[in-house]
Amino acid sequence: MAESVFHTTLEHEGVAEFVEKKSVFIGHACPVSSEEEALAYVKKKKSEYADARHNVWAYLQKGEIVARYSDDGEPQGTAGVPVLDTIRKSGVSDAVVVVTRYFGGILLGAGGLVRAYSHTARLALDAAHIITYEQYTELELVCSYSDYQKYQAELPRFGAVIDDTQFSDRVTLLFSVKDPIVEDVFARVREISNGGTQPTVRGKRFDYR
To answer: Which of 155, 180, 189, 196 has the most Cβ atoms closer than 10 angstroms to its Cβ?
Structure first.
């Protein structure tokens, strides 16, 4: 049986605000598919909040392969790294977080900054809804009309997602199943068709069910 493959990221953009000793922290978190997209998002937020003293950011791509951050003027290690660590601890990848700070006139100290940036980043990630996708295998099955009735009854038992059904002289079923049960589906198809039919693998995708 194949091993499950999961991908945890953000469902949509999220925004959150946190106030600490009159300093206002505004966190934005967003799913991104590339470094270019992450940097474009950072640029956009820095433009929107150009009047803020700091626009701290961090992003994580392709698991742990690509990781970048910026303190944007805050003392080294008190802003960008905590934001990046918060992304890592959430288990999220392919995501960017920008935390904007409007200084309230009261110094927070190194520890206070770390806590404030970490907390705001976590609030933003929660607002963006952390979601885990599981890898599916996309399959194509060409069968007779009589066997089609059997597959209609059997495939839902494997949690199959029917993507499309095409009718001509035979029926073409396009469906997807979670990776760990692909072999079980193949075995059941062979059993129903007495070894005369076998699905064709069309590709892979991540899906949330």
So the answer is: 189
Strand partners, 94: none
Instruction: Please give the torsion angle defined by the CA atoms of residues 26, 30, 34 and 38, in that order, rounded to the nearest 10 degrees.
Output: -20
Q: Are 57 and 98 in contact (CB under 8 A)?
A: yes
Phi, psi of 101 (to 5 degrees): -125, 125
Place of tokens 């950011």: 57
What string of DSSP letters covers the chain?
Answer: -PPP-EEEEESS-EEEEEEETTEEEEEEEEE-SSHHHHHHHHHHHHHHTTTSSEEEEEEEETTTTEEEEE-TTSPTTSSHHHHHHHHHHHT--SEEEEEEEE--SS--HHHHHHHHHHHHHHHHHHHT-EEEEEEEEEEEEEE-HHHHHHHHHHGGGGT-EEEEEEESSSEEEEEEEEGGGHHHHHHHHHHHTTTS---EEEEEEEE--
Which tokens go with 89? Answer: 């601890």
What is the number of other CB atoms lying within 10 angstroms of the CB of residue 64? Answer: 9
pLDDT tens sequence across 136-169? 999 999 999 989 999 989 999 999 999 999 999 9
SS3 68: strand
Q: What is the pTM assigned to this prediction?
A: 0.77
